[in-house]
Amino acid sequence: MRTYPEYSIVIPLYNEEENVPELVNRLSRLVDEAPYAIEFVFVDDGSSDRTVEELKNLVATTAGRIVVLSRNFGHQTAVTAGLEHARGAAGALIIDGDLQDPPELLLPMIERMKEGYDVIYAVRRNRKESIGKRALYFIYYRLLKTMSDTMIPVDAGDFALLSRRVVDILNAMPEESRFLRGMRAWVGFRQVGYEYDRSERAHGESKYTFRRLFKLAYDGIFNFSTAPVRLIRILGGVSMAGAGLYLFSVLLKKLIYGTVPEGFTALFAAIVLFSGVILFSLSVLGEYIIRIFFEVKGRPKYIVSELYESDQRS
Ligand code: UDP
Ligand code: MG
Questions:
Q1: Are residues 196 and 243 in the same domain?
Q2: Whose CA is nearest to atom 19 of ligand 1?
Q3: Which among 145, 148, 248, 303 has the fewest CB atoms less than 10 Å away?
Q4: Protein residues near ligand 2, an ion, with CB under 5 A
Q5: With DSSP H G I counted as helix, E B as strand and the rest as coil, what are the percentages for the chain, rounded to 5?
Q6: What is the rounded (10 degree) CA torsion for 78, 97, 104, 24?
């Protein structure tokens, strides 16, 4: 009987009542087989179904905590809440609650970590999503990699095993808008990918709507890159150079032929084009200002409405 957890497993859940029984089942089996003391940290991200009740019924016999958030704060914040409540002395594993990330990989990942790594991030060898979504993911991760100064690995999500010191560092990072896979890469130390086949969601629908996915993609780019601002400078430079060349050619023509071939069409096109460039640029700046606005408020990242602890130790 151990009285402290060595590893925590952090699981965010949002309306996953159908997945809870199988999830807890798989996790309990893992705890029985593992030669480590493991605790669960379930985070209920404001579910409106019976996720919390199901959890309480099933978790009573194992070591674990259920962190119930006061409303839906989103996946990244839910994982953050989980990491802040994880007590595993050696580290924490982050998985999804829909069994897309096999919890059993904890054991081989721990072995890998013992080789001297602080972060073992899972890399999807394949995806089960539609071809369109897969293509978008593919392009996005590569775009982010080129734009960002942080080396964010491609095709790696939040599924990862983190050492205790990495968990502590992430917990000490105060930013409100959290793009965990980027923050994790930013921390540094020795990190390595662990390839796996991503399963299909066991039950229910993805809780990431297209809108939420876009928000996550935006957060990745605007929190980890200043490239959009530099892009504005390039846009401005190119337009100024283009306008300059055009004016120069008009002047030349006037001097040589004495004609003035100016048309309203060219004028109109130029106005529309540059108004577009200006509005686009304003929106890019606005994106950073919005982020500053939310950061300076310094609000708590989430609110816990209930912390349920099961006393049983594994
Ligand atoms: N999730 C959450 N809060 C949200 C959305 C999702 O805690 O606002 C959880 C969800 O219950 C799941 C995990 O985050 O355990 C990953 O979500 P999902 O499976 O819907 O994303 P996908 O795998 O489709 O990217
Ligand atoms: Mg999923």
A1: no
A2: 206
A3: 248
A4: 96, 98, 100, 201
A5: 50, 15, 30
A6: 110
